[in-house]
Write a structure and sequence with these properties.
about 325 residues; Glycosyltransferase; mainly alpha; single chain
Length: about 325
């Protein structure tokens, strides 16, 4: 058992992100349909259990295989998945805030500061190791997207200074990194098959930027619309590649399908619920995206459980290419 911990990948932190993101989207729907709250609370409970389990297992890996854990954190690709832990905590803090629990603000503050530290550490790794263009991939947006999650999940008593700081840094690095990743995707050969699902991560930054703008400005402004439509266009573009995705065999990188899908659905639901006048088209789009995200996350969860029961987990080579 202890030897198996050596292969336990930080990609498992993405499970909490995906489940928590879907739970948040359903919680947005609960503002219109109270029955959706039961689904959201159930999903958040599952998220709590999952985050706790993954954290304990990775902590055990650190204790018994410290050298391997340090190698994971110094790896250009694997390091990008560690911020999934703090993103999961941020999503849980937003749930606690909806429940009126006083622990929400301390948890959000801790997760926000920890995510800033992780983002700095990961960016430093990119600089120190001088990432070659052919090794860059959309998973590099995970720590950047997480900085947008900070203001998007800010509780009523949270620090607006921390939220604005994270939003500014996220916007800067998203716009700076996007041309680099697009350059790699378009002009430097096809992504390895295990990284194809990470294309979905391109949806997350604009979708989360829209949600963050809503929280910071207390309204769905035209700026939030711009971010949302950018994310929606990327989603439509990626949808045209469905044939390539359906041909893939399951790996943990499939969890890259989940959080961005849920983030876009959650933003669409906010856009619909905050509209000044009822908008049937916005409502159909929001519900459609939520159903799609639910189906995607349900299928990936089933594949993950089946893989854990009947097959081995992902190897280091599968995650790093």
């Amino acid at each position: 058992m202890l030897e198996k911990l050596k292969t336990f990948s930080p990609a498992y932190f993405g499970v909490g992100m995906g489940l928590g993101g879907l739970a948040s989207a359903w919680l947005n729907l609960a503002e219109m349909h109270p029955i959706a709250a039961d689904i959201a609370h159930t999903l958040f409970l599952i998220t709590c259990f999952t985050v706790a389990l993954v954290t304990l297992l990775y902590a055990a890996k650190f204790v018994f295989h410290r050298a391997v854990t340090i190698e994971d954190f110094c790896d250009i690709n694997l390091a990008n998945f560690f911020p999934g832990f703090t993103i999961s905590l941020l999503l849980l803090s937003s749930w606690f805030d909806r429940l009126g629990l006083p622990v929400s603000t301390p948890l959000w503050t801790f997760a926000a500061l920890a995510h800033i530290a992780l983002a700095i550490s990961v960016l430093r790794i990119w600089i120190v190791h001088n990432v070659e263009i052919t090794r860059s991939n959309p998973s590099m947006f995970v720590p950047i997207a997480g900085l947008f999650v900070v203001p998007a999940t800010m509780p009523a008593t949270g620090s607006s200074t921390i939220a604005l700081f994270c939003f500014a840094v996220a916007l800067l690095f998203w716009l700076a990194l996007l041309p680099v990743v697009l350059n790699r995707i378009l002009f430097h050969g096809q992504l390895p098959k295990q990284f194809l699902p990470t294309l979905f991560i391109l949806i997350a930054p604009p979708a989360l930027a829209a949600s963050a703008t809503v929280v910071l400005m207390a309204a769905f402004t035209p700026i939030a619309d711009l971010f949302f439509f950018a994310g929606l266009f990327i989603a439509l573009l990626i949808a045209t590649m469905a044939k390539q995705f359906l041909s893939l065999t399951f790996q943990m990188s499939w969890w890259a399908f989940t959080f961005p899908s849920a983030a876009l659905a959650g933003t669409a639901l906010k856009r619909y619920t905050l509209a000044a006048e009822p908008d049937l088209g916005a409502g159909v789009l929001a519900i459609g995206l939520l159903v799609l995200a639910t189906l995607i996350i349900g299928f990936v969860s089933w594949c993950t459980l089946r893989g854990l029961i009947f097959r081995r987990g992902p190897t280091h080579e599968e995650m790093t290419g």
